[in-house]
Amino acid sequence: MKIGVLALQGDFEAHRKRLEELGAEVVLVRNPAQLDAIDGLIIPGGESSTFLKLLGEAGLEKLKQFVRLKPTFGTCAGAILLAKEVENPHQAGLGAIDITVQRNAYGRQLDSSIREGLFQGSP
What we know:
Blueprint: E1 2-6, H1 12-21, E2 25-29, E3 40-43, H2 48-69, E4 72-74, H3 77-82, E5 83-87, E6 97-102
Parallel strand pairs: 1-2, 1-3, 3-4, 5-6
């Protein structure tokens, strides 16, 4: 089985490495024509609007056709791209999952942080 990892930007190398450790044949997908040669696809994290710019209109249409027919998994920005509707701001998506995603619902990454806390009743 050949698994593609969309390799336009983002952390595609981490996905490639793990898939190869699991014994999968991996194709780093850098152009739409490569989609014809794979059995499934992982769309990694990164920045969803950057993915759209790098794909271009033709690449987006080819990817839409692919996700309708073959298994596709998305992490972070990849999951955003798979959504039926993307808000804040509105952007194109692949429409593969019947969900609405609000981009950056927690603010920009610069404003994000990790906090430590205790759950009620935890030691």
